[in-house]
Amino acid sequence: MNLLPLAARNLLRNRRRSATTLFAMIVGAMAILLFGGYARNINLGLQTDFVRHAGHLQIQHRDYFLFGNGNPAAYGLADYRRIIDVVRADPVLRPMLKVATPTLSLGGIAGNYAAGVSRTVIGGGVVVAEQNRMRQWNDYNFPITTKPLHLSGTTPDAVVIGTGVARVLQLCAPLAIRNCPTPHVEPATGDSVPDDIAALAGEARAQRAASDGTTIELLAANAHGAPNVARLKVVAAVPQGVKELDDMIVQMHFAAAQKLVYGGDTPKATAIVLQLAHTDQIPAARVRLEQLLAQHFPGQPLTVLDFATLNSSYGQIVGMFGAIFGFIALLIGVIVLFTVSNTMSMAVVERTVEIGTLRAIGLRRAGIRRLFVIEGALLGLAGSVAGVVVALGAAWLINHGGLSWTPPGNVEPVPLTIRVWGEYTMLLGTLLGLTLVAGISAWWPARRAARLEIVDALRHV
Amino acid sequence: MQAVVLSGVGKHYRLGQVDVPALTDIGFEIRAQRFTVLSGPSGSGKTTLLNLIGGIDRPDSGKVLIDGQDLGELDDDALSDFRARRIGFIFQNFNLLPVLTAYENVEYPLLLARTPAAARQERVRELLEAVGLADKARNRPNQLSGGQRQRVAVARALATRPTLVLADEPTANLDSHTGAGIIALMRRIQREQHATFVFSSHDPAVLAEADDAVHIRDGAITAIERRDEVTA
């Protein structure tokens, strides 16, 4: 017996009660999907940000990730050009590969000699044109505009610094940085510097002050531990979302960084950044890279790391949103469970005589059970389908409402988007999950209905 | 030929802490293709007896055989299947499914019996014609009068061509004119289809139509009347 039409008609008997249950399910499904869409958006937004800046995969010295922070120059890849050539030429990787570019990380002390100030900095050198290509990556179609690096079109001695670095080095005025206070410093007194040295320094400072005021000196240790200094021209101060980074970051041309760190030695890179067409190509690309490195560079201490490993915060943030999403879904599942169960329990009581009649004319206990479970599942299906439709509409309204927000670590606001349409796994999961929960909710009342004695059910008033 | 055989049938109900005997040592036979009435005052046990014969309740003792099949030997599913194919029920309150049309109500037992669609359609139309409701096939029970509802119930009870049709006070909720019409209808169909009809009733009009009458009082048989004999 096909119980589906009977179950569907039974649901329409008490329309108000069914509508109330449906409303609860619609709100539940909508809450799950909107939060899920928001969390998904955060996840993909973070991923896009990481991939645009540091690629999907990086080839590094085996120990660089764990130990390179203290002395990046000691973990350089001398063969980086050849590695890039091999990677670019590989027929397996070529269709996946968007960009392969070297980077060189360094740490040092930046000083504004003219102002008599300095501070420790971290940063590195990049190939500007290739980095600009990496910033075009937008596989998830975010409504964002991509600006080229501030180093674009600049001279080889150009450097970009964080606004915090500019503030400490007293470069705010020459760089025309707004909201950049100047510290009130008492003039130094005492005999800490001999008179002749102080006189020499003052003379030199006076000469430097005659320049345009945007030149800094960057002191870094070379690969052998000896200090090297480069005079660099600050072309821009760019605010960073995180103050600690804003106070330390410097970025320069790759060749300038190599010259600073390696001088006349063989120039190296600390990482080769690889950006793929799609994130889901990471496993295949990684396997192939490991094959290539083993084949062409045997014995070299090389490793391949993905962006999630390089950015541990990515996994933490995704995990946090996953946990919140799971909690919300569980909470809504429980609400749906009790709502549908209550609705079906009332239906069983109201239809006790009908249950007795159906059993008398030959419907088995399992048939009664099925009937009520189908009714619950149908209610769940209708509620979740309606919830999906409403959530899609709400997401569309939010996405087109011109709302924006500033994510942690960002400086500028980004459009607030909820990613529901196209997230078929989440949509299907919500649809099936709530339908299943509703079906399970109906199981207990259905069991009770099926266990009724026929004569008792027929006598029910 | 016997359609129903009862032997030593007893049934007790639990009322709080007390066992109340509903039927005690019932033993009699119902002849096939007859119009038999179980008669007795309210509380005499006739509905309980009808429920036991219909296999919707089980006796505490004794045996109930329908067409030679001991109902006590059947488990719940087998008994459900047996009812679906062999027994038709007509209830005092009609007990039609309110969400189904007259046609669908009559069709439902045929669906349970897995009757093929074409045969099902033909049988439902034939029965609705027979009960004079062919033009009401699409009506739901709430769009039918009490008499019409009971006619649909009669058609439903006969849908699977059961050998036994049980009716519990089928005219109790109908006016006398409509009730008489329903009795006449059932009598006609019983004769046409050679089915065995068993009623519980204390309606004299029903008693007058009966081939056989089984009189019950306080859970025991007091008399069995046959058209050609009387056993006390």
Features of the shown structure:
heterodimer, A: 461 residues, alpha+beta, B: 232 residues, alpha/beta, Rossmann fold, four-stranded antiparallel beta sheet, 11 strands
Task: Describe, in plain words, how this protein is organized in 3D.
The complex is a heterodimer of chains A (461) and B (232). Chain A is of the alpha+beta class. Chain A has 2 domains: 4-47 and 315-459, no CATH class; 63-300, no CATH class. Chain A has 17 helices and 11 strands. Chain A has helices at 4-11, 15-54, 64-67, 80-89, 128-134, 163-168, 172-175, 195-209, 243-246, 254-262, 282-296, 307-310, 312-350, 352-360, 365-399, 424-450, 454-459, and strands at residues 57-61, 97-112, 117-126, 158-162, 215-221, 227-238, 249-253, 271-276, 302-306, 404-405, 414-415. A 6-stranded mixed β-barrel of chain A has the order 2-3-7-4-6-5. In chain A, strand 10 and strand 11 (414-415) form a beta hairpin. In chain A, helix 13 packs parallel to helix 16. Chain B has 232 residues and is α/β, with parallel strands linked by helices. Chain B has one domain (2-96, 164-231): Rossmann fold. Chain B contains 7 helices and 11 strands. Chain B starts with a strand and ends with a strand. The chains are: A alpha+beta (461), B alpha/beta (232). The interface between A and B is medium-sized, with 24 and 25 residues.
Provide a concise account of the structure shown.
The complex is a heterodimer of chains A (461) and B (232). Chain A is α+β, with helices and mostly antiparallel strands. In chain A, 52% of the residues lie in helices and 16% in strands.
Give the rounded overall mean pLDDT of chain B. 90
Helix run count of chain A: 17
| Poorly predicted tracts of residues of chain A | none
In order across it, which strands form the biggest sheet of chain B?
6-7-8-3-9-10-11
The average pLDDT value of chain A, as a whole number, equals 89
Protein name (chain A): ABC transporter permease
Subcellular location (chain A): Cell membrane
GO cellular component, one term (chain A): plasma membrane protein complex
Keywords (chain A): Cell membrane, Membrane, Transmembrane, Transmembrane helix
